[in-house]
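Recap from last week: sequence in, structure out.
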Amino acid sequence: MFAPMADSLTDPRTVFLHPGEFYFGGGNTRIATLLGSCVSITVWHPRLAVGGMCHYMLPNRQRPNGPLCGRYGDEAMEWLLARIRETGSRPAEYQAKLFGGGNMFENAMGGVMDIGRRNIEIGRDLLAQAGMALIAEHVGGNAHRKLVFELWSGDVWLARPDRYASLGDPLS
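Predicted structure tokens:
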């Protein structure tokens, strides 16, 4: 969904994304999510102060005819690119950041299920294909992450259970 600019004098509104969800908008809005092996891509246009975030679980699938599903990285990126086109802007004008992809199933099947690594790889590939500059990333490892993306500034705030103090350090 695309949201119009909000009144900057009001308290920020928070949109929480669950796995498979995405949001695009602007104004006095922040987007939050929690990640394990899932990946979030944030995109932000510095001049228009609009942007979005997706939260995908798997890199891709054999896609049947039908609506896009945000659980898959390639389809989530397709959705983000459609929202970008609706603004009349181009993907190359956006700043992108990539988060998550933790190895949450480290001992499962001798490491064969490294879904996090595959999610990171597809995220980087999709951003490169779209011509979007990847200006920051915090990926891999084996811990959960909490993200908060401020649409008015483009800042992304990150917290990890092993380093909650990092919440005060925006990744810009």
